[in-house]
């Protein structure tokens, strides 16, 4: 690379990065025209604006008790361990973790659950189960080559956190699926129409849901629903249950 090109890149970075940071601040605070006294600049208002990002992340990581190590790490532990805050061993930093890994999985899990030095119990997230913390410890340990096994998610915990077709499924149906299935647009089997559904369910409910998830003829994949597969499944169950 020529010296000229290098100077160009350095200049672009010097000018570009502060401009980028300013733009981000403006986005987060709702623009420069608001001064600190305006209602949109209170801590509560700013928090409310940025909160959906954090909440969405927690939602994605699954119901309490069933979150895996990566999900727990990303929603809780990362806030310190990603950068090595407060003297915490940095994620994937083999040097920082070496001596700790040799304490053994059980000891590390105990320390993470009870707290150690500047680390609060469970990283400050009291709602985590001991197993969820253990999964996060395994995830972090394995990032530096330890061969820890994440405690499995108990079948009960997964079932207990199942998305309820009658609640969440109905909500999705009412906002997305009803557009076609409400009146039978484009040949869609109509809601609660026993005859229209009976022939489709000959291969079983799960088969029909699988077909719908992939999309079939005039029905786009998941009916155009952009949420998780599990949520789509709940909506389909709600729709199908209504025809029984
Ligand atoms: C508020 C910051 C913070 C958060 C959040 C945090 N940690 Fe820590 N963690 C620390 C610090 C600081 C240490 C080093 C403590 C020491 O050795 O004195 C540490 C150490 C550890 C250790 C090593 C313990 C040992 O025996 O050497 C493990 C394992 C660990 N953390 C797991 C986790 C897990 C799992 C989470 C998420 C559930 C988490 N941490 C969240 C700050 C944090
Ligand atoms: C744009 C219109 C449209 C939307 C929105 C839509 N569907 Fe459909 N759906 C159809 C049509 C059309 C069919 C029939 C396709 C065929 O067999 O040709 C169908 C069929 C199905 C079937 C039966 C599949 C089979 O194997 O026969 C299921 C289950 C289903 N939809 C579920 C849903 C769910 C759940 C939603 C909402 C998340 C949804 N659909 C949203 C148009 C739609």
UniProtKB/TrEMBL annotation:
Keyword list, A-Z: Electron transport, Heme, Iron, Membrane, Metal-binding, Transmembrane, Transmembrane helix, Transport
Highest taxon in the source lineage: Bacteria
N-terminal signal peptide: none
| Annotated transmembrane regions | 6-25
Q: Which residues form the Cytochrome c domain?
A: 64-144, 164-243
One GO molecular-function annotation for this sequence? electron transfer activity
Q: Does the keyword Transmembrane helix apply?
A: yes
What the entry lists under InterPro entries is as follows:
Cyt_c-like_dom, Cyt_c-like_dom_sf, Cyt_CIE
Q: Which Pfam families match?
A: Cytochrome_CBB3 (PF13442)
What protein name is recorded for this chain?
A: Cytochrome c5 family protein
Organism annotation? Chitinimonas arctica
